[in-house]
From TrEMBL:
GO terms for cellular component: Golgi membrane. Belongs to the glycosyltransferase 32 family. It is found in: Golgi apparatus membrane. The keyword Membrane applies. One of its GO terms (molecular function) is acetylglucosaminyltransferase activity. The keyword Kinase does not apply. The chain crosses the membrane at residues 61-85. Residues 249-373 form the Alpha 1,4-glycosyltransferase domain. This is A4GCT acetylglucosaminyltransferase. It is a single-pass type II membrane protein. One of its GO terms (biological process) is protein O-linked glycosylation. Keywords: Glycosyltransferase, Golgi apparatus, Membrane, Transferase, Transmembrane, Transmembrane helix.
Length: 385
């Protein structure tokens, strides 16, 4: 429930929503941000055309209503003043959503249009943990002409589209790389000659998106379990080695710009990870004196938090298959914000199976229950019948 109070004043208006107060110039209060608001001036009296004046006034009221609806939507995303997601979310552009600066960003750089269950789980878990932030899945196979409606035959697409703070947009790389050092590289590279293009293009796209708009990037095999409290952070995969599978920065952060420049300068698409975790590691080492982690403490350098491997990688990649085994006692992951399930190591060989009692199945049940119910249990029932 929320209350909206309108207070009229000449040539202006005032709006109060919960603890957020908006006047004709700016928004103040717990929302913690400022935004210019359109003014809706009163219609001047037209003595010669009262019918025309009434009609124009109705049009004006409608226009103001639609504009304010958009403002209320942005308030609901950015501040969490109230849990309300109008249908207008389906008409917003990527720039409008990303400009809020708090997005959780996922990328699908293959051509597939049906996200597998692990991708669906990653996006759903983020949407549940970060309910006050937009969660965006960019898909390369999706175009502006692709008609995927709510009744689509793509079950995971329909499932994710129905979540109030999840957005699915086409990944248009040339647009993403505009006004970054990566554009020249993109225009010169030949994807057909790149053996690691799916990964390299993803490495580049995540850097450009975070630099332009800020927020958190996550791989599509990362299950969120609690909010990340840091704004500028890298995730240590192990001591003195950074992952690029999850990181977060505000918009236009110098570290990300430097990473994009180094991406181009040291580009070698034949070496897996050269543009990804190795890039992040060498750039971090250039500005910080990295030391080994002791215990579960985090490190900090140049106002960048270098988060302990326990935060995202409590199960290291050589032991990735443990996620798909039955544990006598499941770990609590008390020191973790999210869990990376190492799908690159898995190569889709192991999957979550209903009733298997594996660690991965328990994670699905706890953090992406809709994915588990709709994509795992339903599939099992269909196969059984």
């Amino acid at each position: 429930m929320f209350q909206t109070v309108w207070v009229s004043s000449p040539g202006n208006w005032s709006l109060r929503v919960s603890n957020c107060h908006c006047d004709g110039k700016q928004m103040i209060g717990k929302c913690g941000f400022l935004r210019s608001i359109i003014q809706c001036p009163r219609l001047r009296h037209d003595p010669k055309g009262p019918r025309k004046a009434r009609m124009l006034k109705k049009i004006q009221i409608c226009l103001c209503f639609f504009f304010v609806s958009g403002i209320l939507y942005e308030i609901s995303l950015l501040s969490g003043c109230f849990s309300y997601m109008p249908m207008s979310k389906h008409f917003l552009t990527p720039e409008q959503v990303l400009s809020l600066g708090k997005s959780i960003i996922f990328l699908e750089t293959t051509e597939r249009l049906e996200p597998p269950p692990l991708v669906s789980c990653s996006v759903e878990s983020a949407a549940r943990i970060y309910q006050d932030r937009p969660v965006i899945l960019f898909m390369k196979g999706l175009t502006n002409d692709t008609a995927l409606e709510m009744n689509s035959s793509y079950a995971a697409f329909t499932l994710l589209s129905s979540m109030k703070n999840v957005f699915i947009f086409p990944l248009q790389m040339e647009t993403v790389f505009q006004e970054t050092p990566l554009l020249q590289w993109y225009n010169q590279v030949d994807p057909e000659q790149e053996k690691n293009w799916v990964h390299v293009s993803s490495d580049a796209s995540r850097l450009a998106l975070i630099w332009k708009y800020g927020g958190i990037y996550m791989d599509t095999d990362v299950i969120s379990i609690r909010p990340i409290p840091e704004e500028s952070f890298l995730a240590a995969q192990k001591s003195q080695f950074s992952s690029n599978g999850i990181f977060g920065f505000p918009a236009h952060h110098k570290f990300i710009w430097d990473c994009m420049e180094n991406f181009v300068l040291k580009y070698n698409g034949n070496i897996w990870g050269n543009q990804g975790p190795f890039l992040m590691t060498r750039m971090l080492k250039a500005i910080c004196n990295l030391t080994d982690f002791k215990g579960t403490e985090d490190h900090s350098c140049q106002n960048i938090s270098f988060l302990n491997p326990q935060r995202f990688y409590p199960i290291p990649y050589p032991a990735w298959s443990r996620y798909y085994k039955v544990w006598d006692k499941s770990p609590n992951f008390n020191h973790s914000y999210a869990l990376h399930l190492w799908n690159f190591m898995n190569h889709n060989r192991k999957a979550v199976v209903a009733g298997s009692n594996t660690l991965a199945e328990k994670l699905y049940k706890a953090y992406c229950p809709t994915t588990y119910e709709d994509l795992i249990q339903s599939a099992e029932l269909r196969d059984f019948t």
